[in-house]
Amino acid sequence: MEYRSSSLVHTSLDLNSFPNYLPANHELQTMFNSYESNIIPPAKHEEVGDLTRELQRVNLENENLMKMVKEMYKDYNLLQMRLSDYMTKNPPQLADKQKSDTLINENSNSNSSYENTCQNPIKYQQTRPKISKVFVRVEASDTSLVVNDGYKWRKYGQKVTRDNPYPRAYFKCSYAPTCPVKKKVQRSTYDKTIVVATYEGEHNHQYPSRHEIVMSPCLNHIVTNDSPRLAIPTITLDLTTPIKSGSHTETQMALQQFLVDQMTSSLTKDPSLKAAVASAISGQIAKS
DNA sequence: CGTTTTTGACCCGCGC
DNA sequence: GCGCGGGTCAAAAACG
Ligand SMILES: [Zn+2]
């Protein structure tokens, strides 16, 4: 796969099937027009025009890359879903025997996917517990890493993580061990007014305090489902308040970074591809 | 006094 | 094996 000169690459993808998180090119055009008429001296018009067109071209290129990546991610999840279904229908009991067989087949680097995946059947059951991420806009730099979601939580750990200066807090539902639900909460690096809560599992009881659910007025939250079945295609955007243009790019960055995390973590099986994707998208982020 | 938070120790999987 | 990063435990402290 080489799409180095990607502006020449026209994929057969349906480029209209995704919401566009990127700044539109017509915005650049209007920007340029207003500048041209007001600020830029006439002598520079041509130069600015060239730069603007170049910017538009690169913008389009990045846009297409982004779409390709999304398309890849979608396909990847579709495959994973099918594989997961297949594995649940055909419980792999030959795993032990298969081990010796795959040693023989080693140099055929078999992508026959059945043999490969039967070796760790447990993993596919472990990914079953439903994981969902929630982006919550919380009141200005409130240091308490608490998301008021109506449930009662017991904090059982806090760690500093590698690529985020803010610590990550670990919670269990207070009804444990009856209720197995856990959540992780960490403030986003890219928008310090957003905390990301990652829920794992489902509660087997009612809300402990139903009246306390003060879905604090100003939180627009983004809920995505991370289970293999409904991964990316069902990202739901629940923006209870329209985003102001000021925080818009910040939110975009948080969302894009989230997408980067999703995709890269999903594509770890191919390191070179992973690197390419990561650099491509971080370029995307740097631009906006 | 029961519950929750804090926080270092511990564990575990992974890459070298 | 070792170190690293992420996740968990549990004793002590803090809370109400
Ligand atoms: Zn619960």
UniProtKB/TrEMBL annotation:
InterPro entries: WRKY_dom, WRKY_dom_sf, WRKY_plant. It comes from the Eukaryota. This is Transcription factor WRKY4. Residues 48-75 form a coiled coil. Keywords: Coiled coil, DNA-binding, Nucleus, Transcription, Transcription regulation. Residues 105-116 have a biased composition (Low complexity). Residues 142-208 form the WRKY domain. PROSITE patterns: WRKY. Residues 89-117 are annotated as: Disordered. SUPFAM superfamilies: WRKY DNA-binding domain. PANTHER family: WRKY TRANSCRIPTION FACTOR 36-RELATED (PTHR31429), WRKY TRANSCRIPTION FACTOR 40-RELATED (PTHR31429:SF3). Signal peptide: none annotated. One of its GO terms (cellular component) is nucleus. It is found in: Nucleus. GO terms for molecular function: DNA-binding transcription factor activity; sequence-specific DNA binding.
